[in-house]
Amino acid sequence: MSLLIVGTVAFDAIETPFGKTDKILGGAATYIGLSASRYLDKQNLVSVVGEDFPQEHMDLLSNRGVDLGGLQIKKGEKTFFWSGKYRNDMNTRDTLDTQLNVLGTFDPIVPENYKDCKYLMLGNLMPSIQQRVLDQLPNRPKLIVLDTMNFWMDNFWDDLIDALKNVDVLTINDEEARQLSGEYSLVKAAKKILGMGPKNVIIKKGEHGALLFNHKEVFFAPALPLEEVFDPTGAGDTFAGGFIGYLAKTDDISFENIKRAIIHGSAMASFCVEKFGTERLQGVDENEVEERLNAFIDLVQVEMAL
Amino acid sequence: MSLLIVGTVAFDAIETPFGKTDKILGGAATYIGLSASRYLDKQNLVSVVGEDFPQEHMDLLSNRGVDLGGLQIKKGEKTFFWSGKYRNDMNTRDTLDTQLNVLGTFDPIVPENYKDCKYLMLGNLMPSIQQRVLDQLPNRPKLIVLDTMNFWMDNFWDDLIDALKNVDVLTINDEEARQLSGEYSLVKAAKKILGMGPKNVIIKKGEHGALLFNHKEVFFAPALPLEEVFDPTGAGDTFAGGFIGYLAKTDDISFENIKRAIIHGSAMASFCVEKFGTERLQGVDENEVEERLNAFIDLVQVEMAL
Asked: Name one GO cellular component term (chains A, B) (predicted).
């Protein structure tokens, strides 16, 4: 089933207690696409890069089935760049540098042959850009997933509230859920956010797993206890990519299947953090995914009836 | 099966964003006993209080099947008192006052008729006191659970390390596991701690659930997402009480049953935090426990095979 991904394609420079990288391939849409490619042969991408974006990165995406017809390449301009450093706990990071470059004037144009998409992943971007994508689609997709962050709440509150009205699944982390709702309790936060429009809210708690709420039900997916977290960059986007990739592949958006999709997303994210950037994600094979899904199920497996 | 609980019986004065209490009934052994009483008709207690400890609190414990033959009542002395204030996030608390009183000279004496205990819960206490209890038992209990905290690591490291050598299950929170092991990753921390003697380690993560490790396996029990956490005091002890109460009742210490016991302990703890002190714990009925156990199971239930 056709999946359209909208999000950043970028350069990242990352420093963790385990080492540092030069400019490497990054961006929300990159992680989403690589992760979703485990489930789909073909995905469409709307994004923007500068003239400095190398052919090898485009080939990597193409080889994974990511169609680049919607990737704008801006002559004479530079690709979005982010640089960050993780502290020793690996949960806190400081942004060292952000160069918006091509992202500063990004106008997302959805190619005609992408417009019938059934699954739409709106990666973390300015809410008005996310909305402009929605406005170009003649028919509402079967499922719209939107990711956002605190920066947009701080600076573009009204636009974000508008965009949320159209959303089937909002993915957000725990601190952002608290900020968006004004509630400390995540149960209360989820209820308030569901009142803003999204039919489902996934609250990502990093190493503490993820909570899924709709108006009637709640589900909790643990994170796999990992011996080493090497680089958390892109884990949330990798989660989103596995999540929507699985849903698009199975074409079933029941609550039961959304639960399964969260386990798939969590499994993909658990690979992502094992190496710098997209490196580990590129090397994952089918058996490893299967093994890790089983590990997720075993982790919480308990037979209560004696 | 006979359960012996060793721990504090105390007065607490608690302040949370929702209100404050005068001196109310508290102490690790109190919470453990009240929680375990859901599973057992009779439990033995070794502890100490002062002359100021009221009859009504002793009656409350007696009525729940807690035998007070091992409760020392020190004439002319005062009961251990702790006072604390929770911050708005309910995860951080500041100790306002600690008056050791009778606890300062506590010498735990195990009555003859307690010495054949099959299940032993060593609540959070000075490690040398925990060890002195072990030294009085002619036969090793079938299961020894020990709870501890960072204070003993800071001040009585060697005693704690000695006590850990004899333990079947160590319960500890995530920060304490990191301190005890010197490892940030909880997987690595658990491995190191298992190397110190305990056959199982339960790492309590509060609102993020609990992890169980032995040398071969790992299990994760979520915490129930609660709308309101009113007072977290005693939640860890209530967990321990439900945990060992269930194990003593079923008299099965297989890994599978330890997993079940964690769910029972988590369910009991989820009640504890809903009101101040032991209030909610006193009022829990059988149907409510059943309902909450089901909620725990449903929370992570997902059928992966399509």
From this structure: cytosol
Rg (CA), chain B: 18
Cα A119 to chain center, whole Å? Answer: 14
Say if A182 is an interface residue toward chain B (CB within 8 Å): no
pLDDT digit string, tens, across residues A44-65:
999 999 999 999 999 999 999 9
Assigned domain for B305 exists: no
Q: Does B192 touch chain A (CB under 8 A)?
A: no
By the 8 A CB rule, do A241 and A222 touch?
A: no
On whether any CB of chain A is under 8 Å from the CB of B225, the answer is: yes
Selected residues 202-221 of chain A with any CB under 8 Å from a CB in chain B: 205, 208-209, 211, 218-221
Q: What is the ipTM of this complex?
A: 0.90
B226 contact residues in A (CB cutoff 8 A): 185, 187
Average pLDDT over chain A, rounded to an integer: 95
Domain that holds residue A187: 3-300
CATH code for the domain of B248: 3.40.1190.20
Query: pLDDT tens per residue, chain B (306 residues)?
Result: 699 999 999 999 999 988 999 999 999 999 999 999 999 999 999 999 999 999 999 999 999 999 999 999 999 999 999 999 998 878 788 999 999 999 999 999 999 999 999 999 999 999 999 999 999 999 999 999 999 999 999 999 999 999 999 999 999 999 999 999 999 999 999 999 999 999 999 999 999 999 999 999 999 999 999 988 899 999 999 999 999 999 999 999 999 999 999 999 999 999 999 999 999 999 999 899 999 999 999 999 999 864
Q: Which among B88, B185, B227 has the least Cβ separation from residue A227? A: B185
Distance from CA of A170 to the nearest CA of B (A): 19
d(CA A142, CA A134): 12
The reply to whether A81 falls in a domain is yes
- The distance of B96 to chain A (nearest Cα, Å) reads 24
**Residue A216 CB contacts under 8 Å (≥ 6 apart), including other chains:** none
Q: How many structural domains does chain B have?
A: 1
DSSP state of B274: T
How many CB contacts within 8 angstroms connect chain A with chain B? 88
Q: Where are the beta strands (DSSP E) in B148-299?
A: 169-173, 200-204, 210-213, 218-221
CB A271 within 8 A of CB B192: no
CB-facing half-sphere around the CA of A276: CA atoms within 13 A: 18
Inter-chain touch A260–B229, beta carbons under 8 Å: no
Q: Which of A187, A227, A260 is opposite residue B188, by nearest beta carbon?
A: A227
Instruction: Assess if residue B255 is contained within a domain.
Output: yes
Domain-located, residue A287:
yes
Contact (CB, 8 A) for A228 and A207: no
Q: How far is B95 from chain A (nearest CA, A)?
A: 23
With a CB cutoff of 8 Å and minimum separation 6, the contacts of B87 are B17, B93, B94
Facing A300 at nearest CB: one of B260, B293, B300: B300
Q: What is the pLDDT of residues A61-102, one digit of tens each?
A: 999 999 999 999 999 999 999 999 998 878 788 999 999 999
User: Which residue has tokens 């636009």?
Assistant: A159
Pairwise CA distance, residues B9 & A305, whole Å: 34
